[in-house]
Amino acid sequence: MIIKEIGRGVHGKVKLAEDLDTGELVAIKIVDKQSRRRQLGYSILRAKNYHRQQYHEALDEYNESEQKIRREIAILKKCIHPHVVRLREVIDDPASRKIYLALEYMEGGEILWRDEQNHRPVLSMDQARSIFRDVVSGLDYLHYQGIIHRDIKPANLLLTHDHIVKISDFGVSYFNQHLAGIHSQYDDEIDRELAETAGTPAFFAPELCSSVENYTTQDNRHITKAIDVWALGVTLYCLVYGRCPFTAATEFELFDIIPTAPLVFPTPEEIGFQTPETLKDLFERLLAKQPENRITLEQIKHHPWVVEDLQDPTVWWKEADPTLYKAVEVTDEEVSQAVTIMDRLRKSIRRISSSLVSLTHHFSRHHSKPVVSVSTSLHPLDEEQEKPTWPFQMDRNDSSTSSLSGLVVNFSRSSNNK
Predict the structure, then answer these.
(1) 20 to 30 Å CA-CA from 186: which of 85, 378, 406, 407?
(2) How is domain 2-324 classified at the CATH fold level?
(3) pTM, rounded to two decimals
(4) Active site residues per annotation
């Protein structure tokens, strides 16, 4: 049941809802479907008009892409970690061209990391360090599961009621088979998606600041999980200094600056404190221009600045060890059911309502007053009827937009989660 709207932006609306089965609060992110899969659909139609073989090749590409996306969603739904927002369900409503993501509700909201009036930092050094450790732990787990997030930034770090930080928004994330140690039918394909500039430009790694056409097959292998480490460095810079390390008036200029401009630290006069040498060292290693020179997450965990305020770092190292968690595996059935199609909900509701109607008629023949009252709202998804709370009350007229490009796009078939 939808309770209220709790957020709105270029990526869509977020509404607070209650799971009627458990009473648990969840966040429902409502987004439009992206064009990536739609373009595949257009290629199928074009091929059909010209050549039968081209048509079948395009159709095979479409089906393989859908299967790959479903697998990624199925894996994300099984990722459970103290510093990763849980994806509960993905619901596709073909009638409204919307995707509904049922997410773990984060009561604390986004991290407040700068004063919007003067753009000065508002976090203490210890607060920034604590947040950073939580993100490192969550990101290391995602990489262990084969997931490259691709959009690490302060806006995607959310707080629980007791100030635990969790990574959110997997709309442009990428599942890397080799990173997870998995071999599949997709191993031999040239997947250009990872080289595409998905995410937020100010957080792009230098290796992403070229058009995808400039990446050869040989170059493409260098677009790795190191892009998340770069974004992690930019995020830490924001938390500490209240600004991004590289800025420009336009994205075009920014793409020139990021790969070439030297890293500069604010002066004490600007921010009110002196940057420790250990922190400078960490920034220089996080923001190394060449990905092969960039610090790894394992090295980050042992960096002096990161563990400076811990009495016994070994305790945190053990807690942040991703191998404590089972590597996520998904069955063919879980992949096929990764996305709930709204039509299936309609059919389930109608089956239940039909059973209740039959039960009502049965009792009506034996009692002067019906024992069970059946409302016409049991057919809630018909446009002229009242909408129910099953399991979430969907806003069919939502007009929000989204940057989702990889995971939950264009499941527009009528049959078979910000």
Answers:
(1) 85
(2) Transferase(Phosphotransferase); domain 1 (1.10.510)
(3) 0.74
(4) 151
φ and ψ at residue 246, rounded to 5 degrees:
-130, 125
* pLDDT, tens only, 298-323: 999 999 999 999 999 999 999 999 99
DSSP annotation string for 376-403: GGGSTTSTTSPP--SSS---TT------
251-260, long-range: CB < 8 A, 24+ apart = 251/201, 254/201, 254/202, 254/204, 254/209, 255/201, 255/204, 255/209, 255/210, 256/209, 258/204, 258/205, 258/206, 258/209, 259/206, 259/209, 259/289
Q: How confident is the model at residue 415 (pLDDT cuts 50, 70, 90)?
A: very low
77-122 per-position pLDDT tens digit = 999 999 999 999 988 887 777 888 899 999 999 999 999 888 889 9
- Please name which of 173, 165, 200 lies closest in space to residue 76, comparing C-alpha atoms: 173
| Residue 289 labeled ligand binder | no
Beta carbons within 10 angstroms of residue 132's beta carbon: 22
Domain boundaries along the sequence of the chain: 2-324
